[in-house]
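Support case: user asked for a sample of complex input and structure output to validate their parser. Sending the pair below.
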Amino acid sequence: MTLLSVQGLHTHYHVEQGTLRAVDDVSFEIAEGETVGVVGESGCGKSVTARSIMGLLPRRIGEIAAGEIRFAARGGTLDLAQQDPLGPVMRDIRGNDIGMIFQEPMTSLNPVYTIGAQIVEAIRLHSDLSKADAWAKAEQLLERVGINEPARRAKQYPHAFSGGMRQRAMIAMALSSDPRLLIADEPTTAVDVTVEAQILALLEELKRERNMALMLITHDLNVVGEIADRVIVMYLGRVVETTTAARVFDDPKHPYTRGLLASLPSLGRRTRLTPIEGTVPGPHQRPAGCPFAPRCAQATEKCNTQPPTFRIDAETSVACWLYDDAEAGHA
Amino acid sequence: MFKNPVINRILSALFTLWLISVISFIVIQLPPGDVVSNFVRQQELISGASVPPETLEFLRQRFGFGEPVYVQYLKWIAGFPKGDFGFSVIYDGAEVADIVARRIGMTLLLAILALFLSWGLAIPLGIYAATHKNRFSDYLMSNVALFGLSIPDFLMAVVYLFIAIFVMGSDYTGGLFSEAYVDAAWSVERFWDFLKHLAVPLLILSIGGMAGTFRIMRANLLDVLGQQFVETARAKGLRERVVIYKHAARIAINPLISRLGMQLPVLLNGTIIISIVLDLPTLGPPFYRALIAQDMYLAGTVLMLLAVILLIGNLIADLLLAWSDPRVRDG
Ligand SMILES: Nc1ncnc2c1ncn2[C@@H]1O[C@H](COP(=O)(O)OP(=O)(O)OP(=O)(O)O)[C@@H](O)[C@H]1O
Ligand code: SF4
Ligand SMILES: [Mg+2]
């Protein structure tokens, strides 16, 4: 069953230089219990997409200009794009139905409250547990995410925790109200490789035991390969390819996806790294046609107009003119 | 020096106190001719007869009259444990301790009330301005604060007096009581009269400190609001008000606490200056008169007392900060 369905999302940032189309016509779905990886280079709109879902766009700067964010909750579906981001409905969705963890574990927790107090705050916000019960639950959660001596640790402040432990504490907090969806925005970018593997394994375990969906944002395709079911590849605010995690490695379609794959430092192939030619254009110099055209070796005349999304089969769609002859037409 | 930081702190405070007493004594000895000889000469002028030999002997015993300077210093500090800080020439030989004791309370009361008032107004205004950044109200407040920062306290006091007396026709001419209540016993009317009189210097004093506190609070909060843990608080589903006050403002206040140590001398200075202009029963007027008349035991003792208050104020600020910020406490 579909848990989250984003359709035609346009998110604009009103900045000094003008209006920035940070997310430009993005559509994707996440099923219950599914892990979806969102990949793309820095600045392609991954975080803005997540913020749009959470209702956490910067006030008076970010705005959902068009589109739907349908989320299955309260026995029906709710269009989150239509909700007041600060209103009671969104506040209840946040933390309760959708949890989120961030890239920077070192700064994600408030330095003046204990770890336990911060988790208890989240628990009590969305339940009527007593303070003592909430503390007990917070300690259980800390134990579950792999923190030793949870009772003692809960009374410590964030500065007594290492980066990896803080990220575990963040996960405990995000899971405290049993969300249906966890959005993890580059949860392992700031930690070292060993810790990264542990955190990914933990996320994988937790989502299985709770049948929770996971939207995992990363710029590392290897991370996607580890735990995702499906992959969404973004470039300059657009989804350029949607496919399964297996296929993204075996049979990437979009020239950008292929470029990402080729630039991957793989343990098996000891070939030289071939990063994608050129750089991402500044957000204000968006090409008129296919956004990838300036860096694409296969670009043709046709690419001066924006390619629609071609559906290759039930699992894969690509926004690239190379697949124009794929029978089905627009998705 | 020593392992225990508390002992270190106390030792260094004691050393500072000693240094302060030396400097104060040097100040006492600075004017030509020493205080005691001046006093003797003055008494002789008034009475037209020589000072009796018993008095001279007493002065020699107690203050080292006619002995080397270091003996005089030792004799002066030897009186401290007994609460003897010397005598005042302009107050007809009254004990310095008595003069100071009668006025220290009002001095501290004014300074501390002004501190509370300026924080109580400046912090909420700073929070409001930061959360309404770049809107009209923010521009207005920030510019008024800039203006307020550039007016010295005594000028405000003079301007206020001018407006009160010549424009509004008030009979306020300074002091803390109307004539009818100066020597009256405490009553509701007297207290009300006192409050009305207190309001003037209090407002002048607190407005001076407000501008700076407002600007720092606004800047701190803007800085904190950009940090990741604020986003975490929102992602939990907390109300915006809780996010701002409990998670952001709570931290933005810490630099204000560490600034207390610097704010206190400014406030005490302001209290003294305003008390001179408005003739308030604080240490201001006697200190001023003592400096002009070279009544050096009084001037030196007030100087020393102010320094001690600053020392204690700094200690309190440090303790408060450690209490408020666990990173400082454990660090
Ligand atoms: N607060 C903001 N103000 C102005 N522009 C912003 C803001 N946040 C994001 N943007 C812009 O929106 C675009 C998309 O940014 P986004 O943060 O979604 O990228 P990302 O894919 O998450 O990248 P990264 O991998 O670096 O996190 C970028 O061009 C970025 O410059
Ligand atoms: S549409 Fe054209 S430019 Fe864009 S990726 Fe496909 S081939 Fe390259
Ligand atoms: Mg991002």
